[in-house]
Amino acid sequence: NAGVTQTPKFQVLKTGQSMTLQCAQDMNHEYMSWYRQDPGMGLRLIHYSVGAGITDQGEVPNGYNVSRSTTEDFPLRLLSAAPSQTSVYFCASSYSQGSIQYFGAGTRLSVL
Amino acid sequence: GEDVEQSLFLSVREGDSSVINCTYTDSSSTYLYWYKQEPGAGLQLLTYIFSNMDMKQDQRLTVLLNKKDKHLSLRIADTQTGDSAIYFCAETQGGSQGNLIFGKGTKLSVKP
After folding, report:
1. Is B102 in Cβ contact with A58 (below 8 Å)?
2. Under an 8 A CB cutoff, do A43 and B92 touch?
3. How many percent of chain A have pLDDT more than 70?
């Protein structure tokens, strides 16, 4: 019963490096999203997708790219990492837009 | 825009009841959620309530919804040290999006 799987769990980057945070779900959910969590803050939406081939921006999209080529996967790309992107990143999925969302365990990213 | 507010800290003694409060702004939210986050862990869906309900009870948890005042509360009966965590209130964004808007979280400390 995997649910929502995020990899890696931890990552340290240098400023300017690029990387992709992976998110996969095995529940055949149409809706997937990425959030970031910063100390003392709630979660803020970065990007979301309502189905394969469809993505849209959330509250804080700058510096991040996404794509949704399959229903199962929704990777988040940092093209040129900045210290301001040091955060914990959570991926979530739900059967459809507006239905109950389930979260992955998170990726802790530090950008030096 | 939409906003979710919750107090940042709550301290209770083991065995007492805990009440965590939340106010939200979007009256068209379909679901309202409570998520639990233990230190260093991901978000665990604790419970949720449909917007057309006033109350939901699930074992030690009671959720009360006052739509008129846009107020949501989570009561934990017989609070245990294992309940120590951060509790996030979240509403679904209105309109056609259905994305989640989170509060900043309430840190519950349970003293023995």
Report:
1. no
2. no
3. 98
